[in-house]
Design brief:
- With about 150 residues, the chain is of the alpha+beta class.
- The protein is about 25% helix and about 50% strand.
- The chain contains three helices and seven strands, in the order βααββββββα.
- It has a seven-stranded antiparallel sheet.
- Strand 6 and strand 7 form a beta hairpin.
- The longest helix has 29 residues.
- The protein is globular and about 50 Å long.
């Protein structure tokens, strides 16, 4: 397993952050791993999504995931087995939110588990990169959200 963790204090309420991270068309401006959004379907606090993308510049197969929104404090996601991605990897992660003086503290975690034989190459190749990419993703999230008009 490899993972990346990033944190940011964002001068926006939790609802604005949740709205941003659950809209992949918007969120891919911060998360450059996300490519074309192929599907997004929401039912209550659950969202099913499919998208393609790349890891460290290398394109991968489309992936499916399910997001769950837990009130104003958490958004969690996990991969849903789909062909052909299920033969390569699974992933999960989320966003933990806490209102603090000056905004919302956001902790974002991404975990990837590659299946053999891909693990032997993918994990060493991606380990340091993902550990550095997720904090940069949080910097971009903060910059994007804080530059938007909060009255919109």
């Amino acid at each position: 397993m490899i993972q990346g963790i990033g944190e940011a204090l964002v001068r926006r309420p939790p609802e604005a952050i949740i709205a941003f991270v659950t809209d992949l068309e918007r969120y891919k401006k911060a998360d450059w791993k996300i490519g074309r959004v192929l599907e997004s379907r929401r039912e209550g606090n659950r969202i099913f999504m499919r998208h393609d993308g790349k890891l460290r510049g290398i394109p991968g197969p489309p992936v499916s995931l399910e997001m769950t929104i837990e009130g104003r404090t958490s958004v969690r996601y996990r991969s849903v087995p789909s062909w052909p991605a299920k033969w390569f990897l699974t992933f999960d992660g989320g966003f933990e939110l806490a209102e603090v003086a000056g905004g919302t503290q956001v902790v974002h975690t991404e975990r990837f588990r590659f299946h053999a034989p891909w693990r032997l190459v993918a994990e060493p190749f991606l380990r340091n990169w993902i550990a550095q990419d997720v904090p940069k993703e949080m910097e971009r999230l903060k910059a994007i959200l804080e530059s938007e008009d909060p009255t919109l």
